[in-house]
Write a structure and sequence with these properties.
The protein has 365 residues and is of the alpha/beta class. The protein has eleven helices and 15 strands. The chain has three domains: 118 residues, NIF3 (NGG1p interacting factor 3)-like (Udp-n-acetylmuramoylalanyl-d-glutamate--2,6- Diaminopimelate Ligase, Chain: A, domain 1, 3-Layer(aba) Sandwich), CATH 3.40.1390; 105 residues, Udp-n-acetylmuramoylalanyl-d-glutamate--2,6- Diaminopimelate Ligase, Chain: A, domain 1 (3-Layer(aba) Sandwich), CATH 3.40.1390.30; 101 residues, Alpha-Beta Plaits (2-Layer Sandwich). It has a six-stranded mixed β-sheet with strand order 5-10-12-13-14-11. Keywords: Metal-binding.
Length: 365
């Protein structure tokens, strides 16, 4: 199939505009028009992973972490990043990364942690803002239903678990068509009064082109009047980390043993145990120390993540248990998540899970 078929699907699961500014998710090497016959999925893209792809005749590698974060000025093979990119290009292997955009969706990295730990009723811990816009348009009242439905079909009007949301007010519109116009109602050169409906609805930033196209194609007027406003509202189902509840309260040690087992962590760095049982749990795949205040404010009894620095452990202030399970350990099941999604969408496409552990950290126990 075309590479674009897979990348478009992945970007529907986790839109690229959900990623952080520093990130480099998306297609790093390759063209959307390239034909792909098989894909290899891993957490990181290393030389070992590229060699595995070559051996297994995979001409696409999908990873969570991008191999390239910063601009490369030279391709001399002096660093592992340069060598990976060079080897991929020489062997016609496309490289695709789905990183913080997958971190920021409820069915993504943190959602997979919740699933494995049995955390229930999980929701986003720190929702993102500036991902919504509002559309306001005016059309003849007799055509309002048709226009609304077209906007809804294009993705407008979704608010959390609700769809087809809009606000409508009736009013009187006026216009006068000039020479060369072909007005839907009224006559050229004469001011016309028309009973109109003001339609207000919201849409996600990435859907703007699709929503506008639906408006212009289904609105009866020759010249369509509309306004678009940027919103600072938070999108509740998109953002960093997740928080939910265990099926039953657990003692501190029992909870840590559960985390260690389910997340296959060799070691857990944690703050002091507390004289209360664990019920409400916050999680964040990867480096999540920036969410500590959010976890405390949300009333979490424990916070599972990775990459806490020494002094950051003090910030828990005995309000919750920080459980640092390691960066790789917190994200290692992301590959399984991606494979499950791709196989469900493309059941006849060959997709393989890497046989290699790319964790650069070793433990001397």
């Amino acid at each position: 199939m075309k590479l674009s078929e897979i990348t478009n699907f992945l970007e529907k699961i986790a839109p690229l505009n959900y990623q952080e500014d520093y990130d480099n998710s998306g297609l790093i090497v390759g063209s959307g028009n390239d034909e792909v016959n098989a894909a290899l999925v891993a957490l990181d893209c290393t030389e070992q992973i590229v060699d595995e792809a070559i051996a297994k005749n995979c001409n696409l590698i999908i990873t969570h972490h991008p191999i390239v974060f910063k601009g490369l000025k030279k391709f001399n093979g002096k660093t592992y990043v340069e060598r990976v990119v060079l080897k991929a290009i020489k062997n016609n292997i496309a490289l695709y990364a789905i990183h913080t955009n997958l971190d920021h969706v409820a069915h993504g990295v943190s959602g997979e942690i919740c699933k494995r730990l049995g955390i229930q009723n999980a929701k986003i811990l720190s929702p993102k803002s500036n991902l919504l816009k509002k559309l306001v348009t005016f059309c003849p009242t007799t055509n309002a239903e048709e226009v609304r439905n077209a906007l809804f079909a294009a993705g407008a009007g979704d608010i959390s678990d609700y769809s087809e949301c809009s606000f409508n007010t009736e009013g009187m519109g006026t216009f006068k068509g000039g020479d060369g116009t072909n007005p839907f109602v009224g006559e050229v050169g004469i001011q016309h009064h028309e009973a109109e409906t003001r339609i207000e609805t919201i849409f996600k930033v990435q859907d703007e082109r699709k929503v506008l196209l639906a408006l212009l194609e289904n609105h009866p007027y020759e010249e369509v009047a509309y306004d678009i406003y940027a919103l600072t509202n938070k999108l509740e189902n998109v953002g960093a980390g997740m928080i939910g509840w265990l099926p039953q309260e657990m003692e501190n040690v029992d909870f840590l043993n559960l985390v260690k087992e389910k997340m296959q962590a060799k070691v857990i760095r944690h703050t002091a145990l507390l004289p209360k049982r664990i019920k409400k749990v916050a999680v964040c795949g990867g480096s999540g120390s920036f969410l500590l205040k959010d976890a405390i404010a949300a009333g979490a009894d424990a916070f599972i993540t990775a990459d806490f620095k020494y002094h950051e452990f003090f910030d828990a202030e005995n309000k919750l248990i920080i459980a640092d399970i390691g960066h790789y350990e917190s994200e290692q099941f992301t590959s399984n998540l991606l494979i499950d999604n791709i196989q469900e969408k493309f059941p006849n496409f060959a997709i393989r899970l890497t046989e290699h552990n790319t964790n650069p950290i070793n433990y001397f126990i």
